[in-house]
Write a structure and sequence with these properties.
Blueprint: H1 19-33, H2 35-38, H3 41-65, H4 75-90, H5 95-114, H6 123-142, H7 144-147, E1 153-154, E2 159-160, E3 163-164, H8 168-191, H9 193-203, H10 205-210, H11 215-241, E4 243-244, H12 251-264, H13 269-289, H14 295-298, H15 303-318, H16 322-336
Antiparallel strand pairs: 1-4, 2-3
């Protein structure tokens, strides 16, 4: 078991807590950089989708996992970013400038959506964001002169300074660079006073306000940053599919994003990537397992939705901390073996906020 002796305050905010982190993250970086040479084209495309969903998941994790504001219409921000970027690229704008404008447009829409968060929370906030998702989907379908309506819109291959990124390998590296930058930005934000304010609001709004945290400002900022990351993910998503339509950004997409961070582990950056892997790998596993099931079950149209529902119920009941929480328990068990004690990971009783005052 590793014991870390801290002799400097900077160790508390260091990204790498010990040399083991440097080794494993370095090895992961090497594997990701070498992925185009050891993965088939199909699996490289799936890994690219993992990176794109991870960017969107980082935004939703910032909102739900670190600020405590749940959104049931987050796919609408992906749609705003995707259509803004596609329209600007079609007009001849440079790729990076279009990507920045897509993030800015989604962030601006996030500010507008974040305004109800100042008055409502919980299920009422979920209903407000759900209604926003339906409104955006309807606008994308009706504004045919810009979005192409239900017929959809074709997206050009990305180009940076005359260099075409139409190939699968080049686009994968583009997504990898943006994902790394977004992850580092998220980690540094959480170490900053702004990120600590988000966490304080999540834990207790009354306590955060008593410490001088401006609730309205930070809630709106959280929505804006979350929407901006979703806009970037939407732009990359549009380029990867090379075709977008309003039905790709519906309520089911929003539920998939929420499912991703819940199963990955709320309140954890690692959980975003584990959840993205789950979201991409689960349909592949279901497709491979259909042949092993009876025909009445394997060919059922609602098999994937049923499996998703059962998995989510299992995590809520038995592992609310998600995949990353389970990994932390396994790691602790291995570190303490054979000196672990029985019941070490037994779930503790949780109290409501009102119970803390009794």
């Amino acid at each position: 078991m590793r014991f870390i002796f801290k002799t400097d305050y900077r160790q508390d905010i260091a990204l790498a807590k010990h040399p083991g982190h440097v080794f494993w993250y370095g090895l992961l970086a090497l594997l990701l950089l070498a992925a185009p040479w050891w993965l088939a084209e199909y699996w490289l495309a799936q890994l690219t989708f993992v990176l794109i969903y991870a960017i969107a998941g980082l935004g939703l994790m910032l909102l739900a996992g670190f600020t405590g504001l749940f959104s049931l219409g987050h796919a609408a921000f992906l749609g705003v970013g995707a259509y803004t970027h596609a329209a600007l690229v079609a007009a001849g704008w440079p790729f990076l400038l279009s990507l920045a404008c897509a993030a800015a447009m989604s962030g601006a829409v996030g500010v507008v959506v974040g305004l109800p968060a100042l008055r409502v929370k919980g299920i009422y906030l979920g209903m407000a964001t759900l209604a926003f998702g339906f409104i955006v989907e309807e606008i994308l379908a009706r504004w045919e002169s810009v979005t192409g309506g239900n017929a959809g819109l074709h997206v050009k291959a990305p180009q940076i300074m005359g260099w075409s990124l139409a190939g699968a390998e080049a686009f994968y590296f583009l997504c990898l660079v943006i994902t790394v930058l977004a992850t580092l930005g998220m980690l540094n934000l959480l170490r900053a006073p702004t990120g600590r304010a988000f966490v304080a609001i999540r834990d207790s709004e009354i306590s955060a306000q008593s410490m001088g945290i401006h609730l309205a400002r930070y809630k709106t900022l959280s929505f804006a940053l979350s929407a901006a990351l979703a806009g970037v993910a939407g732009a990359l998503y549009a380029h990867k599919l090379q075709f977008i339509s309003p039905d790709q950004f519906n309520i089911l997409q929003s539920i998939d994003l929420l499912l991703m961070i819940v199963i990955g582990g709320l309140g954890s950056v690692h959980g975003v990537f584990l959840g993205a892997l789950f979201l991409i790998a689960m349909p592949q596993a279901i497709a491979l397992g259909k042949d092993l099931l009876p025909a009445a079950i394997g060919q059922a149209p609602g098999l994937q939705a049923a499996v998703y529902g059962l998995v989510l119920i299992a995590f809520v009941l038995f592992e609310p901390m998600g995949l990353y929480g389970r990994w932390l328990k396994v790691r602790t068990w291995l570190q303490l073996f054979p000196f672990y004690r029985q019941g070490m990971f037994k779930r503790q009783k949780s109290f409501q906020k009102s119970d803390r005052l009794k």
